[in-house]
Amino acid sequence: MDTLLQQVVSGLATGGIYASLALALVMIYQATEIVNFAQGEMAMFSTYLAWSMLNAGLSYWTAFAATLVIAFVGGLLIERVIIRPVEQAPVLTVVIVCIGLLVILNSLAGWIYSYVIQPFPSPFPGTPIRIGRVVFGPHDLGAIGVTLVLLGLLYVFFRHTSLGLAMRAAAQNPASSRLSGIRVGRMLGLGWGLAALVGAVAGMLVAPVIFLEPNMMSGILIYAFASATLGGITSPPGAVIGGFLVGIIENLAGTYIPFIGTELKLTVALVIIIVVLLVRPSGLFGRAVVRRV
C-alpha cells in the first residue's frame, strides 16, 4: 500500500510538469487550431535564457520573471513572423513549419550552449517531506502547486476579463469577432505569447529534475500530447487533469507491469494517445466538434 501511494504521489508530481506543457499546447490550439510541435523546444530555449541570467548573477525570481517576459514577446514574434503567413495554408504546411521551428530552435540551442548537460536550480527547498513511509519532494509539490496556480489564473483571465473573452471569441468565430470590432490577429498573437509563457514555466519546472540540455523536452512533449489528448485538446482544465492522470498511469504501469519497467514508460504515453483517439477523440473533457456536410 505504501508503494502504491508513493507511486501515485510521484505520478502527480511528474504529471504537474506534463500538465504545464499540455496547457501551452491547448492554449495555442484554442487560439489558432494549430498543434504546435515546437512547444517543447520553445520551452527549452526559454529555460536556457533563464540559466544564462542565473549564471550572470541574477536572483532566481528575477531571472524567472525576465524569462516569462522574454518568452511572451518571443511567442508574439513567432506568431507574427512565422505562423501568420501560413495560417490559412493547408494543415500539412503548418505542421511542417512547426517541425522546422522545432529543429531550428534545437540546433540553435546546441550551437550556442552546446549539448553538455547542465544543472538547473530549483526554487524549492531540498529537504524531503516524510509522512509515514511516503516521501514528498518539495520540488514535486511545488510543481503541482505552480500548475494549479497557472490553471486558476488562466481560468480567471479567460472567464472574467474582457481581453480573455475577446480571445475566446476570436478563436471560436473569427468572422463574427471582426464584425464586433475585435482585432483577431492581435488575439491570436496574444494566445501564442501566453502559451510561450506557460511553456517557459514548464521548462523551468522540469529542468531541475532531468537537467538542462537541448533535447530535454523531446520526451516531455510526448507526455504533454498524451495529457492534452486524454483531457481534451479544447479544455485547459482537462489538459491539467490529463497531465496528472498520465503521470499516475505512467508510474503505476512502470511499477506493476514487469515488461514495461523504466525503459518502456514512454510507450505508455503513446498507447494513451492511440486509445483515446480511437475511443474518444475529443478526450475526457474536450468539446466534440460536429461538422455538417
Return residue spans where pLDDT drops below 50 for at least 5 consecutive residues: none
Strand content: under 5%
Overall geometry: globular
Q: Tell me the series of helices and strands, N- to C-terminal.
A: HHHHEEHHHHHHH
User: In terms of structural class, how would the helical and strand content be classed?
Assistant: mainly alpha
- What is the mean pLDDT? 85
Number of strands: 2
What separation lies between the terminal Cα atoms? 53 Å
Major β-sheet strand ordering: 1-2
Query: So how many helices?
Result: 11
Q: Main sheet, how many strands, which sense, barrel?
A: 2 strands, antiparallel
| Percent in helix | over 70%
The Rg value, from CA coordinates, equals 19 Å
Provide a descriptive summary of the structure in words.
- With 293 residues, this protein is mostly helical.
- Helix content is 72%, strand content 2%.
- The chain is built from 11 helices and 2 strands.
- The chain has a two-stranded antiparallel sheet with strand order 1-2.
- α1 (2-32) packs across α9 and α9 crosses α10.
Topology (SSEs and partners):
Blueprint: H1 2-32, H2 39-55, H3 60-83, H4 91-113, E1 129-131, E2 134-136, H5 138-160, H6 162-172, H7 174-179, H8 184-210, H9 218-231, H10 236-256, H11 265-279
Antiparallel strand pairs: 1-2
Helix pairs in contact: 1-5, 1-8, 1-9, 1-10, 2-3, 2-4, 2-8, 3-8, 5-6, 6-8, 9-10, 9-11, 10-11
